[in-house]
Amino acid sequence: LAKTTQPISMDSYEGQEVNITCSHNNIATNDYITWYQQFPSQGPRFIIQGYKTKVTNEVASLFIPADRKSSTLSLPRVSLSDTAVYYCLVGDRDDKIIFGKGTRLHILP
Amino acid sequence: DAGVTQSPTHLIKTRGQQVTLRCSPKSGHDTVSWYQQALGQGPQFIFQYYEEEERQRGNFPDRFSGHQFPNYSSELNVNALLLGDSALYLCASGEWREYLNTEAFFGQGTRLTVV
Questions:
Q1: Is the pLDDT score of A41 beyond 90?
Q2: Which of B61, B77, B85, B102 is most exposed, with minimal Cβ within 10 Å?
Q3: Cα separation of B64 and B57, whole Å?
Q4: What is the mean pLDDT of chain A?
């Protein structure tokens, strides 16, 4: 499983766009990139998954450059309720889900 | 449609005791995975069950065991509890081969405190 590196924490303000970048230099050909969100004392919640280029859903966008060695989760116009831990995961779809320490995002009023 | 449900929500046990945690997967899901999450850390994979068999296992000792029932629900058993077993235990469900690294659904977890 490819190792991921993401910032330990980030602060932003309500209404701003937040971009969290994840580095995964050893990503394999069959690996997908998946992001989860976790609020305190709750289970993680799937946000988005992608393989290459750009993926967008109602919650976020995921940008993946051509070399796939990094990815960026983009949250548009964040609110206080977006304060959470965000995990970047890389692996084959048959892999068990392996979490790192994630990025603690703190949204300020 | 109920999502993944776990019971109990909180539990306090004494060191050396045994504990059983329960998980009911989301309707339509046949695969259950268990995770341990210590305070301030990401969830750590314990094991995964499909067709009542353990399919994958993380780096956890044999004190951690599990079971899956014909209705796809699952139990996590931990024997000889240690203080370090205090954590949030999460259950995730999905469809076999369709979810492992796609959209897994997690329960709210069971907060286990060992004293």
A1: no
A2: B61
A3: 10
A4: 92
- Asked if A97 and B107 come within 8 Å (Cβ–Cβ), the reply is no
Rounded to an integer, what distance in angstroms lies between the CA atom of residue A103 and that of residue A31?
A: 21
Nearest CA distance, A86 vs chain B (angstrom): 10
Of A32, A43, A93, the CB nearest to B90: A43
Residue B22: which of B78, B85, B73, B57 has the closest Cα? B73
Note the pLDDT of residue B114: 98
Express each pLDDT in B75-107 by its tens digit: 999 999 999 999 999 999 988 765 555 678 999
Chain A hits for B33, CB-CB cut-off 8 Å, are 96-97
Nearest Cα to Cα of residue B89 among B51, B60, B68: B60
Chain B residues touching A92 at Cβ < 8 A: 101
pLDDT confidence of residue A91: 81
Q: With CB atoms and an 8 Å threshold, state whether B102 touches A49.
A: yes
Distance in Å, alpha carbon of B98 to nearest chain A alpha carbon: 7
Find the length of chain A.
109
C-alpha neighbours within 13 Å on the C-beta side of residue B100: 20
Task: Suggest the residue from B101, B105, B108 to mutate for an interface test with chain A (most A CBs closer than 10 A).
Answer: B101
Closest CA to B6 of B31, B25, B30, B19: B25
**Torsion on CA atoms A25, A97, A57, B97, rounded to nearest 10:** 110
Q: With pLDDT > 90 as the criterion, what percentage of chain A qualifies?
A: 74
8-state DSSP, B26: P
